[in-house]
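Title: Request for sanity check on Importin N-terminal domain-containing protein prediction

Description:
We are preparing a figure and want to confirm that the structure record we downloaded matches what your pipeline produces today. Could someone re-run it with the sequence below and paste the raw structure tokens into this thread? We only need the token string, no images.
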Amino acid sequence: MAEDLTQISHLLNQTLSHDAAAVRAATEVLDRLSLTPHFPFFLLSISTGAGNQGQKIAAATYLKNLTRRNVDSINGVAPSNVSKEFKEQLLQALLQVELSVLKILVEVFRSIAVADFVKQDAWPELVPNLQSAIQNSHLICGVNTEWNTVNALLVLHALLRPFQYFLNPKVAKEPVPPQLELISKEILVPLLAVFHQFVEKASASNGRTEREIEKVLLTICKCFHFAVRSYMPLTLAPLLPSFCRDLMNILGSLCFDSVVNQEDEYLTRLKTGKRSLLIFSALVTRHRKHSDKLMPEIINCVLNIVKFSKYTSKLSFMSERLLSLGFDVISNVLETGPGWRLVSPHFTTLLESAIFPALIMNEKDVTEWEEDPDEYIRKNLPSDIDEICGWREDLFTARKSAVNLLGVISMSKGPPMETASNSLSTSSKRKKGQKNKRSSERRSMGELLVLPFLSKFPIPFDSNLSQRKILNDYFGVLMAYGGLLDFLREQEPDFVTTLVRTRILPLYTVALSLPYLLASANWVLGELGSCLPEEMSTDVYSQLLMALVMPDKQEPSCYPVRVSAAGAITTLLDNDYMPPDFLPLLQVIVANIGNDDGESESSILFQLLSSVMEAGDEKVAVHIPHIVSSIVGPVSKWLTANSEPWPQVVERAIAALAVMGHTWEGSRPEESELDESHEKWAVGQVAVGRAFAALLHRAWLTPLCTLDQEDQQSPPSSCIEDLSTLLQSVLLSIEGNHMIYELKVSELLSVWAEVIAEWHAWEESEDLSIFEVIKEIVNLDRKYRLKNFIVKEMPPPPAPPVPERSILEGIGAFISEAIKQYPSATLRACSCVHILLHCPTFSLETEGVKQSLASAFSRAAFSRFMEVQNTLSSLWKPLLLAIASCYLCYPDIVEGILEKGAHGGITIWASALCHISNRSFEPGLMLEAEMKLMMMTLARLIEQLIKQGKSGDGEIQSCFTSLLELSVRSKEAHDDKEDEQGSDDAENDEEDDEDEDSDNDDYDEDSETEEYEETEEEFLNRYAKAAEALENGSNNIEEEDVEDQELELELGQLNDVDEQKILWSLIETYHHLLIRGPILPSELVKSFLNVFPGYESYFELYR
């Protein structure tokens, strides 16, 4: 044992070495030793022993990772296999170990506790042992014991952490877990008495208390917060009043005028205050039944905190966070039933003494503007104020929280005059389409209080620019307008127009002197974009365009002005505002890209360019060739060989170029348009393609030329989705073999195929263009026979003569992996299977590539099918048809793969084929190509089964029945095709008219009715159903849209095969086995013979 302990200690020391080889060797030995039963005990002994600090940290870290690996693999379906002896030793160690090691070992404890206690309720000794440890720890029992109070409370904190969220989201109203009730009864309830004593001791000291006591207070607050954040244990509820008053005593002891050091115990007191406010928020928002009686005291306590907002510029981050939470608690209360009654008497005081002082400009803002303008923009010109409400938990700064509270106040209207008992929770709901209804009964505070207060502050003009207070106050006014967006959106357009004309636009006349105010004005105008009439939007747009080009002539920098202007213009465009001419805006954007040293501004301009392209569409398409040619150069300069991932400016630039590629392709002239239009567009397409190719060379080929051989195996994978869009534009621009050679298309495709072959960052929004490129590559190979497409040439010396992966093989690896991913990727990948197997021209020399593709595709598709087999999802059809394409190429090989994939795999697949061939299956075989493929597959399958001597099996009869039914449907579909095509246009016109009428009806209905707001019960039920669907593996409707389900099948060479001849040959050859008696449905036979009377002689038994 001692030798093993010494060896492990030595190996742990080796893992701290600077020698990578030594670290790797030591880790490999440790991994082998980790399989022995005593290994965790050795690690625990080392981490709590007398070794050096690095060795103890290494032992604890390895133990943490080992435990997670072993416990997490069980995934909560069974208790962990950790022994009782180890748990006891771990708990003893946690109570005594030093803090640096404790922070790591407590994660070991948490993994085991979640698996055994939380999920399986299988650690009965845990709560009694922890209760005893806390009661007998040194600060609580008052004697110098070996058990540390802070350590014991940190263990309790780790145990309670999982209970901060609902454990079973599938239950709409989940009861308190019995484990949490047990912890509450045995530990938390007695602990609150101790907490009260410590609070009294801290209050009596009239100064700074011991650091350990402050840590105890903070940790108990954290434990209580986790216990009540979602649930309310029965034993805690009666103690809430006394506990909350203790929290109020802590908050009352805080000072907001002292400098706090990170090592100062007073910082811990501030953290305890922060946690106290979070507890108040949890009680107000989650446990109204228990908190209503406490709200008056909570409000009074919090009002005494937010009044210090006038000192915001001098406060530390933690102190300001407390102010922010104070405003949030008031917002929470105001959204509840008794909120109006409690808060409305303080509205005026709140506005004048707390909210507005937090909004006005201060010294900290000026410093931040100059030293960190991006942080200034994030804090003060936020793009994330999507909704003003009392439930926000992500505001963090006093100003943002004050803005949010001001918005909540402005929307509040108090109880209706005739039913004063109605709560504010009903009266303050925002209803669309009810502008100024019942205004005589209930006028909002925005109209009665907030706007009159803001109107008192004069707008800055040339005559008063020297008065700093006027500028600072008006900055606060603009911030306040930002909080009134919901209120202003409910007003008549003339009201908003007047406000903008009189209180915001005049600032632009003295713009150069007021960059701070102008940035805020830009932001407010952008946020108001959705409620501005068109004529007002035009005036606003012209001012924003002026602000977008505001130069840095002197200090301070105008960078935030330009950034906020870009954001505001984007918002206007998103709200369907169309400038009379996009060209001036595009000229400004292109002219300024690449002019900033830090690249941040160019990054913003690329975002704006994307928005302009998406909004302008065909109106801006004519400018795209010139814009692309102008900005490819600067983007190429930002690309460096060793930079991965690429800088943000490059990512946004490529995203903008991708949008331009889509927009340009969408502007392709209709067939009916003049030849001149087609020629002009084709010239532009070639220019766009050449520019994109040059950028792709820089991104993909230049690094391969500059890096060493080892690095060349890993081409850059940044922005693969958008770069794929650029590549698609290049492929669409090809007009002959000379362009393929000139633009190095084969080389680009080789790198691209290598990137996607190793693609693992699957996201629905990032993979779709790759599938489009695959189709274009196959089409291009049909025309020009691409180099290295099916088989790649041997690399030249001195490289070893081993063939590298071809373009098609790289694509095949991607498709095989895509089949296993999210539903829409599976659907698209299955569509590509048919293209890759049947469209390229394979020779005898390249047949091996086709065979390996078919093997990989069928293996992946059958594996995925087995996963969804029990769900009857819309993935059945594409997966089964993908296997069918593989089967037609190599039936024997695919049969072997299916049998390896599952016992009776070929039978499972055949049965599923018959199932989806049935008319009743949804979504069934609707397209002619699908029916054709299925008929060919069923015929081949029947023939294979007969050759294997299975002619007597019911499996063959099921397949033959499905084949006959499909033959009838295919023939009927073919005969009706011309008639359907003739009537499509008229039907589409009628449908468009109906849709338009329907839209108008919907609009009228919406304008007359209130927006429905679901109740809490409906909300919980909806989310419970969604959670259950996720757990059961149900697919999102959004992921399985109809468009995806009906992707067109491209069968390539199979299109030349006559499936009716295959049917004739099958029946003629095997009719004596297939039609041996009246076992086929008589109605089916009758339908079949009506369509194919030539087969009557084979069906004599059915006459």
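Thanks, this matches our download. Residues 954-1008 form the longest helix (55 residues).
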